[in-house]
Amino acid sequence: MNVQFKKGVLELCVLVLLDKQDRYGYELVQKISDQIQISEGSVYPLLRRLTKEGYFTTYLKESSEGPSRKYYALTEEGRKYLQDLLDDWERFTSGVNQLIKEGVRDE
Amino acid sequence: MNKEQFLAKLDNALKRLPSAEREDILQDFREHFEIGLGEGKNEEEIAESLGAPQQIGKEMVAAYRIEKVEETATTGNIFRAVWAVIGLGFFNLLIVLAPFVALVAFVISGWALGVSLVLNPIFYLLNVAIYPELFELYQLFFTIGLAGVGIFMIIGMYYVTRWIIKGFVRYLQFNVKMVKGGLKHA
């Protein structure tokens, strides 16, 4: 997949994963890389940026195995941003799908 | 590359950041390694999947610089942010540097024109002081009129400059978000 495209989508993936529950960094990275081929390290700059922009808050939580983990939680602002991105995504993909359908039919 | 080598390279890429910021970033990656090791992966595998520490460092630095410009838009901060975004890849060199140079040129020429218009009557009077026979009253009024235009121009440039800075910072953010990175082997 195209580089620019993937980077924008990564942001959407992270936000979607945090919609229902708080997660720690490693977990987010694994969830995404199970589905899409990414450079795993690039998720961390993204998490940092979105935290600074006020879309996430973070807290440390003890873990039964090993050291405490940094959890990310969606803020109210983050939830709104997710909704906007989802709307964009829906419009975008349905438009592309429509074009693909027409293109395939023409052949 | 093992954990220590990865962290050392990342640390090196982050050396321009304040130490608290840097330590915080490194801590996130230590945590990542810990959990990965707990799941039975080895250090080399984890480092390999994370990608190049230099590239991660660059993205971190660019994000930090932009955050600083948003807090205080000093000339130094803007230049550092532009530089950091350009460092993300060759493509950014073209799409960041070219508009930046054009905007800087526009802002400088706008201010220079405004200031020179305001100084017009002074130059005219200096000229007249040297060649008194050239003095014409209407010319003096004309230059004062130009000075008035210059004052408006300076006020206008003040707002235009602020607006350009704001707009350009958003453009940089957009760049960091959308362009280059996030792809394996990119």
Describe this structure in words.
The complex is a heterodimer of chains A (107) and B (186). Chain A is an alpha+beta fold and 107 residues long. Chain A has a single domain, classed as Winged helix-like DNA-binding domain superfamily/Winged helix DNA-binding domain (Arc Repressor Mutant, subunit A). Helix content of chain A is 65%, strand content 13%. In chain A, strands 1-3-2 form a three-stranded antiparallel sheet. In chain A, strand 2 and strand 3 form a beta hairpin. In chain A, helix 1 packs across helix 4. Chain B has two domains: 51 residues, no CATH class; 109 residues. Chain B contains seven helices and no strands. By secondary structure, chain B is mainly α. In chain B, helix 1 runs antiparallel to helix 2, helix 4 packs antiparallel against helix 7 and helix 5 packs across helix 7. Helices cover 82% and strands 0% of the residues of chain B. Chain B starts with a helix and ends in an 8-residue tail after the last helix. At the A-B interface, helix 1, helix 2 and helix 3 of A face helix 2, helix 4 and helix 7 of B.
Please tell me the total number of domains of chain A.
1
Q: What is the 3D shape of chain A?
A: elongated
Order of adjacent strands in the largest pleated sheet of chain A: 1-3-2
**What is the fold-level CATH name, i.e. the topology of chain A?**
Arc Repressor Mutant, subunit A
Mean pLDDT of chain B: 87
Largest sheet of chain A: 3 strands, antiparallel
Order of helices and strands of chain A: HEHHEEH
Number of helices of chain A: 4
Fraction in helix of chain A: 55-70%
What is the number of helices of chain B? Answer: 7
Low-confidence stretches of chain A: none
Instruction: Round the Cα radius of gyration of chain A to an integer and report it.
Output: 16 Å
| CATH homology-level superfamily of chain A | Winged helix-like DNA-binding domain superfamily/Winged helix DNA-binding domain
Average of per-residue pLDDT values of chain A: 89
